[in-house]
Amino acid sequence: MATLLQILFLLPSIIIIFPTTTAAVTTAYSNLSPSMPEDQLPPYNLSTLLYTLGFHDLSVAATFPANSTTIFSPTDESLRSCRYCSTSLLLLEHSVSGLYPYHLLRSLTFGTKIETLASTATTPLCLTLTKSTPKNPATDPTLFVGGVEITRPDLFNDGNVIIHGIQGYLAHLSPFSCQIERMTSLTFPSQRTSASPSTISIMREFLKDAMTGLRMNEYTVLALLLQENFDQLMQLNSMTIFAVDDAGVFGDGHTYVSNFRFHIVPNQRLTASELLNLPVDSVLQTMEPGERLRVTVAGGGGPMSPMRINNVKITVTNIVFNEGIVVHGIGAPFPRVHLTTMGFMADRTDTVYLGPAADDY
Questions:
Q1: Maximum CA pair distance of the chain?
Q2: What is the DSSP pairing of strand 126-131 with strand 283-285?
Q3: Is the peptide bond prior to 137 cis by the omega test (within 30 degrees of 0)?
Q4: Residue 171 and residue 209 in contact, taking contact as beta carbons nearer than 8 Å
């Protein structure tokens, strides 16, 4: 009898440690009740299942029974990208009723909204399905839910529960995430024909996600600027934004607000690695007509020689990022930069000059 009790006590640990594949996990759960028909199996211990599949941080928040459920499970690293998020709420926001295997997700229309378990009677919350457009027509598109890439599709699927692994920046869903808002006819002049209606629709979601993350990371002023310029920004296909935090704006960085467009690189999403790999004198077009940013100190020099653009230090990278938007922190608003043979020098309007001369301007 003592031996049987020991086996029962050790069984959960055995399930956690040894099975690493979908089949092994399924077998482990089936063995709990070998004589019971599959459609009458009790609800899964979801926490154990997620832990077994490697989602350790998320498993702690798994308290609801999983039955005919699809879960888009973020990695531990992804969860830590949202420092002020509720893990329990994120799990509900990435869980949907019904079974959505990967082949079904691939067949759904771009922009399809799927209501999540986080929905309430008054506030439905939805994940939006989007797809990349591969350069090679023979290549399958990459799928995203809520702007986060599905990196491990059909990680677990036993016909009762499906788990897809996702990785990327996380943010809580907007209370408007289930709404298909009316599109306006406003356009950003230089991008008049570049953004299709479906692109505009998903950029709305990316902007809302970004604003939520910015408010949580002490960039409330930038979130308000995005809201104020929403109609123009949603016309872009992607963007890189350089941001001064709230303390900086209310200190000596008040010019950031009036020069906001000068801090946006339109239709180019430069992640941290891409940004830090830019060589000196690389030029980035901004939303301010005729104005560009220039890399004055390349990345990779470490904390003693941080990357600088327009001679302003990049203080933090990837504050907020999704498939359409990335935000990097800077120590102060960018001054205007032009070329001269005189090297660095500031004029009375705080413009910084660079040398030697080139034919860029």
A1: 89
A2: unpaired
A3: no
A4: yes
